[in-house]
Write a structure and sequence with these properties.
The complex is a heterodimer of chains A (98) and B (488). Chain A is mainly alpha-helical and 98 residues long. In chain A, 34% of the residues lie in helices and 4% in strands. In chain A, helix 1 (7-16) crosses helix 2 (23-40). Chain B has an eleven-stranded mixed beta sheet. The chains are: A mainly alpha (98), B alpha/beta (488).
Chain lengths: 98, 488
């Protein structure tokens, strides 16, 4: 496959990534991402028939029992919030539905 | 105590009463204050906290208590490591005023070993970069030549050790971010085996690759630090339940009969002449010390760059989704008509720098429908082939050596316009992270000519065999005497 990238593609990816890019950024990324992807396409020429994917190199399968333990205090967890409501134990956000 | 030598010497001086921890701490703080304006290596210094800790070490000594292995040793931390209550930014605007509610496991371990944290070092934003130019707080300068990069992403930690601010600093290495700056700054930088050191409290970049490790001026100090940092941690499920040997005991100086693998074909092209000369001489030194050089073949290593940048960006796009203006950090101002999604998108556009956005975009793309199999899955399969290459090579060799970077430290601004060119210079470091093995970069000379710039090479070990890797690095260091102190 050959990678071509349009501004519309970049806008679609930016929406998926929750990034509101400026026009300049969109233009710059269209070119730069196309260059990087064109370079990365060389992996597609490698024969990987029957080769399993490596997601992690050191899976030791050491699972622990799922037990409740003391965790971060709510007040501490909210302390860094740009709009926290520590008395209520909540993060405040703008309205969710547009 | 006027100048720093090594962590070991500092501890010994404190234990024997030749110096107090408070004195050592003050020396470090003064040095940082003097030198930081020219280097920009520190994002912030915690002078008061450090002096309190140092005084506590002195009180412990006065009371006759046994002092820890790093007692009174001043330490700098890359600014992507959490210290409870101490500003931690990852050199990003999006975390400009973040004060973590907990400390990283490595921080707890260092402090229980008696180390004194003096400050947080500058780095590429979220550890994404190879030159430290992607920091929201400006680039770090190389102490050997201040118009050049110290390397990245842990550039501030490398510069802080080279400029004698501290004898020990921590960095994180996802694709070379400890080893490459160590090479550029003429110090020792160690990336442990994946799973050796807990990442709890490290701001995650690419979770299948990230490891925390030390910068030091000697291999012996690196061994000392690694012993203090290693071990299984219930807070990081990827940390391995492997026994932790005494790494210092491995430094026997004897490498007779050890097989040192050299991937000749892999290092044949694209290596700067000065780096090649220094590396070839390093091979001679190892041979003269009694090691046997053997050729090893890393056929798939040539794909390491695309594989790395496909995998690390995919993981980064997921890890960095948490920076959304809700829980911590920057939030873009909103009006009553703005929705949550608008707030997210604007916050992230304002808070992230160009390289971070580029990587989030690339990662989102390769994980998106229609491209996942062709890019992300394919990269994971080639990763398997690359790892098998290394496993085969380790049947013929006890360690593998190669240059750390194909080029000496380059000028600030030289590669900022072309991200791909910047990525290509990571060729010798990224495959080690993809395969999971430990690697240590040690100084092996300098460029010749008008500017004297450090060059390093790396020794790569088998999984959880940092001991043999360190033994080889230490034997090389004993046989050579490259200066570790930048003339600044």
């Amino acid at each position: 496959m050959s990678t071509t990238l349009t501004i519309a593609d970049v806008e679609r990816i930016a929406r998926l990534a929750n990034l509101e890019l400026t026009r300049d950024e969109k233009e710059l990324f269209t070119k730069q991402l196309a260059d990087i992807l064109a370079y990365a396409e060389q992996v597609q020429g490698v024969d990987t028939t029957g080769v399993e994917a490596t997601a992690h190199v050191n899976a030791h399968g050491d699972e622990r029992p799922d037990e409740a333990k003391p965790s971060l205090d709510t007040r501490d967890a909210i302390a860094n919030a740009p709009d926290g409501a520590p008395e209520a134990g909540l993060f405040r956000v703008p309205r969710v539905i547009g | 105590m006027t100048a720093f030598t090594t962590a070991r010497d500092i501890r010994e001086a404190i234990v024997s009463g030749k110096a107090s921890a408070a004195e050592v701490c003050r020396t470090a703080l003064t040095r940082i204050e003097t030198i930081n304006p020219s280097l920009n290596a520190f994002n912030h210094v915690v002078a008061e906290r450090a002096m309190e800790r140092a005084q506590r070490i002195d009180q412990q000594r006065a009371s006759g208590a046994t002092l820890g292995p790093l007692a009174g040793v001043p330490v700098a931390l890359k600014d992507n490591l959490c210290v409870k209550g101490v500003r931690t930014t990852a050199s990003s605007k999006i975390l400009d005023n973040f004060h973590p509610p907990y400390s990283a496991t490595v921080v707890e371990k260092l402090e229980s070993a008696g180390a004194v944290i003096v400050g947080k070092t500058n780095c590429d934003e979220f550890a994404m970069g190879s030159s430290n130019e992607n920091s929201a707080y400006g680039p770090v300068r190389n102490p050997w030549a201040t118009d050049r990069t110290p390397g990245g992403s842990s550039g501030g930690s490398a510069a802080a050790v080279a400029a004698q601010c501290v004898p020990l600093a921590l960095g994180s290495d996802t694709g070379g971010s400890i080893r490459q700056p160590a090479s550029f700054c003429g110090v020792v930088g160690l990336k442990p085996t994946y799973g050796r050191v807990s990442r709890y409290g490290l701001l995650a970049f690419a979770s299948s690759l990230d490891q925390i490790g030390p910068f030091t001026r000697t291999v012996s100090d690196a061994a000392l630090a690694l012993s203090a940092l290693s071990g299984r941690d219930s807070m990081d499920s990827t940390s391995a339940p492997e026994p932790v040997p005494d790494f210092s005991a491995a430094l026997t100086g004897d490498i007779r009969g050890l097989r040192v693998g050299v991937p000749r074909a892999f290092v044949a092209d694209g290596v700067d002449d000065a780096v090649r000369r220094a590396f070839d001489k390093a091979l001679d030194v190892l041979r003269d010390a009694g090691a046997t050089l053997v050729d090893v073949d890393l056929t798939y290593a040539k794909y390491a760059i695309p594989v790395y940048y496909l995998i690390c960006t995919a993981e980064a796009s997921s890890n960095l989704a948490r920076y959304d203006g809700v829980k911590y950090g920057h939030r873009s101002p909103t009006t009553k008509d703005d929705t949550l999604t608008t707030m997210y998108s604007r916050t992230r556009d304002e808070g992230f720098g160009a390289e971070v956005k580029r990587r989030i975009m690339l990662g989102t793309y390769v994980l998106s429908a229609g491209y996942y199999d062709a890019f992300y899955l394919k990269a994971q399969q080639v990763r398997t082939l690359l790892r098998r290459d290394y496993e085969r090579a380790f049947e013929a060799a006890d360690v593998i050596v190669m240059p750390t970077s194909p080029i000496p430290p380059f000028r600030l601004g030289e590669k900022t316009d072309d991200p791909l060119q910047m990525y290509l210079a990571d060729i010798f470091t990224v495959s080690v992270n993809l395969a999971g093995f430990p690697g240590v970069s040690i100084p092996c000379g300098f460029t010749e000519g008008s500017e004297t710039l450090p060059i390093g090479f790396q020794v790569i070990g088998r999984m959880f065999d940092e001991a043999t890797m360190l033994r080889v690095a230490d034997a090389y260091e004993r046989a050579t005497n490259w200066p570790r102190t930048a003339p600044i």
